[in-house]
Amino acid sequence: MILADRHPNLLEGIRGLLETMFESVVMVADKRSLFEAVGRIKPDLAVVDLSLAGSGEASIARAINDSYPELKLIILSVHDEPAAIDEVMSAGALGFVLKRSVAIDLFKAVESVQQGRTFVSASTRK
Predict the structure, then answer these.
(1) Domains of the chain, with CATH numbers?
(2) Is the dihedral of CA 108, 20, 22, 51 positive or negative?
(3) Most confident of 53-62, 77-86, 110-119
(4) How confident is the model at residue 118, as a pLDDT?
């Protein structure tokens, strides 16, 4: 599985959580590295920071889905606006986890997405 986030401290913490679920967690810190790793490793799942692309709420989800439609994608974000969540999910993400609830929601999101279901952090629903 691939984990992509621009914040090294957050990457390390999330990687620690994911390593209990996956044999290997590859970490990348930018969009170019993400696409190179996905092309090389061909993972089933990627957990990606929404701000990785730097422009547009759903641009990273759309770019991944366009290039790798078979890749299951969970987006991490600090943004909890319903419109942003809807846009990301419409762009191809199967999961949306708020960074503030990653310790609680990431396991649930991974399980849901791996079983073909969608997942959105409960704290985003107002």
Answers:
(1) 2-120 (3.40.50.2300)
(2) positive
(3) 110-119
(4) 97
